[in-house]
Amino acid sequence: MEIPVEERYWQLMYTVRQRFDIVAKLQALAQEQKNVFALEILGIQGRMILEAIAFGCLIAVENVLKKRLGQKYTDQWKKRWKRKWNAEEILDSLDKKGLLSLPSPSRIREPSSEEAASGANLVIEGIPEYRLEKDQLIKMYQYFHNWAHERNPYKLHPYGYIHGSIPPQEQERILNHLSSLERFLSKHMISLNGRAFFAVLWDDVDGQTKVISLDKISNS
Q1: E strands within 57-122?
Q2: Read out DSSP for 102-161?
Q3: Does residue 84 come out as left (phi exceeding 0), alpha (psi in the -120 to 50 range) or beta?
Q4: Which residues pair with 25 in a beta bridge?
Q5: 111 Cβ partners below 8 Å, 6+ apart?
Q6: What is the pLDDT of residues 75-97, one digit of tens each?
Q7: What mean pLDDT do residues 196-219 have?
Q8: Strand 104-109 relative to strand 210-215, pairing
Q9: Contact 189, 103 (CB under 8 A)
């Protein structure tokens, strides 16, 4: 049975939300006990969250293809990417094709009087200070990769930890990256060619993860 594209994006964001929930629990352990193994798990979670961002960008393209070109082209798109997972490869490929649309951190607010007069019921407003660009995401992805492997006994770990110790600045760095990703995704819109999803990882009312589909998005 074919999963609707909106449902596919919701599943992805719900998984991301669960990863952030795990991150919140592990952060306390990493900070209080300076547990390097907790940090390694955090690094792996960060890498997987970035892969989810890349998959979300693929789904945004699928959302356009399904509406404008039909199921045949949508199936070809999914077949092309079904064995891919490397976030750097996916983001670079989409960017080169002019198809990269990253999540845009956003909030929903009541319209101003002028906006209401133009017919707006609600306004989705971007939060520029929470945005992350492709190059920033790829650098994070590369950084988190170094936490995903056992330490080679013949060389120092790139971040210098030995026998379970770790420099405080590296602990701060990994936690800062994860905080930036949470702000980036907590409430966001991802749009391409007038079609979009608005996603909330933790709804303000009931705490649930929600995704709504939007059409005819205007930049005005």
Answers
A1: 104-109
A2: --EEEEEEPPPHHHHHTT-S-EEEE-GGG---HHHHHHHHHHHHTTSSPPPTTS--TT--
A3: beta
A4: none
A5: 120, 121, 122, 123
A6: 776 676 677 789 999 999 999 98
A7: 85
A8: unpaired
A9: yes
Extended beta strands in the chain, E state: 104-109, 123-126, 187-192, 195-200, 210-215
Q: How many residues does the chain have?
A: 220
* CA angle in degrees (0–180, nearest 5) for 112-116-117: 120
- Give the contacts of 163 (CB within 8 A, at least 6 positions apart): none
Q: Which residues, other chains included, contact 85 with Cβ-Cβ below 8 Å and sequence gap of 6+?
A: 51
Q: Tokens at residue 171, please? A: 């602990």
Q: Which residue, among 73, 68, 66, 59, has the nearest Cα to 102 in the 3D structure?
A: 59
Place of tokens 């991802």: 190
Residues 71 and 62: their CA atoms lie apart, in Å, by: 10
Which tokens belong to 58? 């693929």
Cβ neighbours, 10 Å, residue 81: 17
* The predicted structure's pLDDT at residue 151: 72
Rounded to the nearest 5 degrees, what angle is found at the Cα of 219, between the Cα atoms of 215 and 220?
A: 120
Mode of pairing for the β-strands spanning 187-192 and 210-215:
unpaired
The identity of residue 109, as a single letter, is R
pLDDT at 34: 64
Q: Could you read off the pLDDT of 154-179 as tens digits, one per residue?
A: 766 555 555 556 677 788 899 999 99
